[in-house]
Specification:
four-stranded antiparallel sheet, 14 strands, 43% helix, DNA-binding
Length: 387
Amino acid sequence: MHRVDDEQRRVRLGRRHLLAPSARAASAVTVADALVALHATDAATVFLSVCARLTEPGAGAVERALYEDVSLVRLLSMRNTLFTVSTEVAPAVDASSARAVAAKERRKLLKHLKEDGQGLDEHWLADTETQTLAALTARGRATGSELSAAVPALRTKITVFPGTRQETVQGIASRVIRVLAADGRIRRDRPRGSWTSSQFRWTAAEPWPPSDPARARAELAGRWLRSYGPGTEGDLKWWTGWGARETRTALAAAGAEEVLLDSGAVGWVAPGDLADEPAPEPWAALLPGLDPSAMGWADRGFHLPVDHRAALFDRAGNIGPTVWWNGTVVGGWAQRADGEPVWRLLSDVGREASQLIEAEAARLSAWVGDARITPRFRTPLERELTA
């Protein structure tokens, strides 16, 4: 069996994830496609992930793609997580993952409505959705609060988890809006405030045309292999949230080829993707929390030293902002209240690496400008650096 060692995996990461300076891209869409999907749970992550890989970084390029060209869209999809993908990749993500997530979200909401005991059912929900879409179409775009003001049904409150320790009274608006977004009937538009804000306005949208889920899974698996391969079956299963059988079938349909990894595990690459690649020039990067380069595999041992995990992950397993050197996570970074980026190295990387890390910090500071970034998922090291 052909072997792909950890060093070659790090070389591929630097090139294929557009992190080496010579590999950087000219557009936000190119970056998104190179990574297949950008984590979007934290609004700032999309901008930071893209701009770390652009030849000319700037929030404006990402905003144009999201809100003017609409060449990037957000989908609640893999692992029931919000991702940003290009409109070229979106149909495969929708059919392979997002449709199942949307159905689950609807079932969950209907279950809450039934348990609440007010007689709210699928007919009430359908009518409320119709009213919400009509109000949104009339306004063009609106926040959740503005929609609630326009649609009385959205101001309904229900009791969730009645009779349990988790019992609580909640408004229905955010849940209805979440289901509409999961179904692709509305999408997130410009937020209130800056690009770091998650207080999105909403606008009407058209669902993606239906397609065969198995074919979509094969397409998505092929894209993941070209961007993240080699990876194990377990890596792809974790990244997508698919079941074991679906993952195995998708790999076979994508024509994946077996390779041996340094860990002793069997990995998979795209068809014909066996040749070693030459190392790019030395590179450093400051990547945000939940960046795809840190989240593309369940087993990150080839680029993340085990003894760094306690400082860089929160209690739920979310990785925070990271400092990279030639394909390895060597530390973490944060932004202080005055805007200054600060970092701490957890590995001894030498003078050349330190100089390039400083240059990346200056590059980051230059395009971020007056914006202030606080990760949604805060890690021990990020908290220490901003204390």
